Amino acid sequence: MIYKAEPDKVLRFVQDNFNLLRELYRLQLRDSIVSQDAFQALTTYQGEVIKKRLFDYKLLTERNGDYRLTEAVRQFLGFLLNEFKPLLPAQLRRYQISLGDLFGLLQTTPASQEDLLLERQEHLYDEILSFLDNVAGNTSQLLRKTQRLKSNKRQLSYPERVHQARHLIEHYIQPLNQILNHQNENSITRLLWRMGERMILEKIATHSPAIQERYEQLDDLLRSANEHLLRQSRIITRELLPLLERLQRESEVLNGWLFFLESPLLRPVPDFTKPSRYPTFSDQTESEVRFFLEQFANRQEGILISVAGAATENSLPRFFDSRTYARRLQAALPVANYFQWCIDTLQQYESQLDAQHFIQLASLVFDETANYTLLFSESRVRLQLAGITYLAPVIEVKPVQS
Questions:
Q1: What 8-state DSSP symbol labels residue 269?
Q2: Are residues 111 and 179 both part of a single domain?
């Protein structure tokens, strides 16, 4: 048993076997444990020395016949991969108690007990940092989950996505928003604000240099914490809640289309001939266009345009140059049938049309709605993307009249 290996040796082992550790981490993330069968399957082609050192270096521990990465290793891999489960609101609310208790202890510690005062200052500092890191991590993971719902790479049905959206809203996003709500007197943000007021007073009080320096550090941290939490709150209100509300039929545009699609043959096409001056789509336009087209899946009549996701010629660019296509669109305005124009334009460069490039090109007018007037007609154009047929409205694009 290696009780204390040299740190550089452990890091070299982690680097050399990172793929194995990554798969162990993802298994534990999914199943909470790494079962014996899964461990054996992952390490079938690994030497016995490698398996032994996973335990000798205390990277992996055995629990009732199954395995788990040690907590420090789990957190480190989660940080490197930026993959982890968002904390439940109840797990974040524990900071309400811990921060409140540490702040109360700090206030009641006599100035004469300098060592104890320094320890409590340090513990409060570390707990604030831990809370801020967890809030940022939660917001990041929730944002990724909502983007996956929009892009729908798992090909979930619309009701499944609405169900997942409601779950995220009710159990994660709305409670997190309450935790960060400065107007809520019982929120953690409000508690940090009260701490900041106290630190201002402590900064001007008479303390030893070490105590004084630590109070100044706490004051700086709390000032930056308020700005940090405000940014996270803006992400929640501007990105997460509106994004999922659209999936819950709370978007005016999508609500109208979904109402129409319940029985499209019995209703006229909604009148979108009046130009709007507010952006219909968010900055995640590509996913929005995918979602928009998905509402028209599996229709039967229209003009056939096949957009294949097959291999392209060598001349096909490896990335999509949106500025080049935006200039071509400006030069072509007005465009009577925008989807047809996208096909004709791409065919000048690609012998076999690339579905991803089509989506990116189709996103241009929705990404810059302030620059274009979009007129939806009753005519239809049929698109085939990745084996799915879509019957989408013909869209006329005109420049905005100044």
A1: P
A2: yes
